[in-house]
Amino acid sequence: MTDAAWESLSNQAVAAAGLVYFLALLAHLVEWASLRKVPVTAVAAASADAAGGVAVDTAPPGDESAPRRAEMFGRLGYLLTCLAVAIQFVGLVGRGMAADPNRVPWGNMYEFTLAGTWVVALLYVVLCRRLKLAWMAPIVLAFVLTVLMVAVIWLYAPVAPLTEALSSYWLVIHVVSAIIATGAFTLGGITSALYLVKARRPGTETGYVGRLPQPEVLDRVSYRLHAFGFPVWTFAVLITGPIWAHQAWSSYWNWDPKEVWAFITWVVYAAYLHARTTAGWKGRNAAILALVGMATLWFNFIGINYFSTTSQHSYADSAPAPALSRDL
């Protein structure tokens, strides 16, 4: 296949993935709509909390099919999400194969956004059964679909070779670990936000909020996600990042805005985990601190590229493109 054919395949795969994500979101919305009037009894809620899943009770008279319909569309939504993740992976591979020479698919903001949303969706698919995250499906899919649309509409850039500073295997290690940590922190932040919503409406027995796990379960899941992401982020920010910086610019630390904000993000999450383990910080305070961490994370990802004129991480595209299409 020619480079142009690979790029065309990538664009088509990304468009197809977006469509399948949308269908998966619709399936999960039907799932939750089917249960909107079904009350959650104490027995059903306790069973769901024990597994960390969705509370499904018997339907009221006249709508006995609601739980079965919800289960069917829930499975359909999960399968469609798995399919979308596979299709998006094809889009990522196509971006890398379209370059001459072939390269990793994160040479600019468009490609990094593709990779970031893919990891968020992949982590959800992988952890959904293990951590019982079915209740997170509509939020995760809405987030991934929204960011993916922003990438396609405003961040798209033609395939181009990597700049000299990006042509390093340390970049691969650095970015892979950073993207994995970003995915875990994003899922943890979503869980923390849902915790705050659930904590404000603890007595709700119907609708989406009523079927969320109890606040203590959400708090525990959020902690586990952050505890997984933090050492990976540490590896990316404090080990591989400085090594790559030294190779590219002959200095381990340059006080670059992106380096500074990556360290600020590390400090916030370190404070979050330290407060939980030593001071017993749980619940609302921990959730707010986790959301502060996610805000610094995404500002570092997007904001620095567009608000900083001095960052060495904001490379200009080799091909003419709008100002929004900047590299990492």
From TrEMBL:
The chain crosses the membrane at residues 12-30, 76-97, 109-127, 134-157, 169-197, 225-245, 260-275, 287-307. It is found in: Membrane. Its main location: membrane. One of its GO terms (cellular component) is plasma membrane. It is a multi-pass membrane protein. It comes from the Bacteria. GO terms for biological process: cytochrome complex assembly. GO terms for molecular function: heme binding. The keyword Transmembrane helix applies. Keywords: Cytochrome c-type biogenesis, Membrane, Transmembrane, Transmembrane helix. Residues 106-308 form the Cytochrome c assembly protein domain. This is C-type cytochrome biogenesis protein CcsB. It comes from Nocardioides agri.
